[in-house]
Amino acid sequence: MKYHILSATRSLGLLPMFDRMAFLRKRARAARSNRAFLARHPGFAVPPEDLAFDAYNKVDWADYHDVGLAHAALFARLIRTHLPDAQPLRVLEWGCGPGRLIRHMPTLLAGRSPQISGADYNPATIDWCRAHLPGIDFALNGLTPPLPFPDNSFDAVYNFSVFTHLSVAMHRDWTAELHRILRPGGLMIATTHGDHYRYLLTQKREIDAYDRGELVTQKRFEEGKKWYFAIHPPVWVRNSLLAAFDRVRQVAPGPDAGMTQDVWTGFKPHG
After folding, report:
1. Between 49-56 and 123-132, two packed helices, what is the crossing angle to 10 degrees?
2. What is the chain's Cα-based Rg?
3. What does the pLDDT look like over 181-238, one tens digit per residue?
4. I need a labelling partner for 140 at 20 to 30 A (CA). Which of 62, 94, 150, 181 fits?
């Protein structure tokens, strides 16, 4: 029922007002627990509330820390497993947002001389990350490619919940760009809205398209933002999104990862 209401709100063009009201409500509800979290973690920098809400639809610092660490640990494990010999290890988070995952990567990849970079299209996010997350390089990109990196720059590129908010054309263009900056044999990790997110499909035409193996997008909101949804049939991910990569597989994240999105890995071919 919640997402049928959301669909109607989207159709009426009322999502921005809905989003603002939700921000104020969630900020008020989390105020006490957030103060308690900061008292327990006095050295832990948290982003401005509006940046966190824009990226994660939450203003909850315990969630920001715990979910960020769990997801980062999953991606770090995949990187260590699939790239056991790369050192120094050059890693990029595309769509890093206000640092929820990437801030944990230097520790999680310690011992591999990691060189960690993050990129995002929100200038305020990049400014905050540069000021508060030392030891990581941050770069600003646009909603559309390119990224400010040479060809073959990284051993691994990962992204969490970025393709989930892009149009069909941007899926194609960004996949090609991430392929460009990966070295041959480099690892791509991506998450998508798979079968778990069928509840987002509130119209028959969306359900039918998804069941035919077609990417479904829900627009009427700014592309790249959290209410611009893309829902990805697994067959479409294999045959379209990651078609240029070798050894594509869907990863079982495990119960400790707290991951409901589909997790995919693939490798840039040699030659």
Report:
1. 120
2. 18
3. 999 999 999 999 999 999 999 899 999 999 999 999 998 778 999 889 999 999 999 9
4. 62
Check if the beta carbon of residue 68 is closer than 8 Å to that of residue 133. no
Tokens for 85, please give them: 């010999």
Strands 229-231 and 216-218: antiparallel
Q: Which residues contact 169 (CB under 8 A, 6 or more apart)?
A: none
> Phi and psi at residue 142, in whole multiples of 5°?
-95, 180
Cβ-Cβ contacts under 8 Å for 211 (sequence gap 6 or more): 233
CA 204 from chain center: how many Å?
Answer: 28
Lowest mean pLDDT among 2-11, 46-55, 179-188: 2-11
How many whole angstroms from its chain centre is CA 127? 18
State residue 68 phi and psi, 5-degree precision.
-60, -45
Cβ atoms of 125 and 97 within 8 Å: the answer is: yes
Residue 62 backbone phi and psi in degrees, to 5: -65, -40
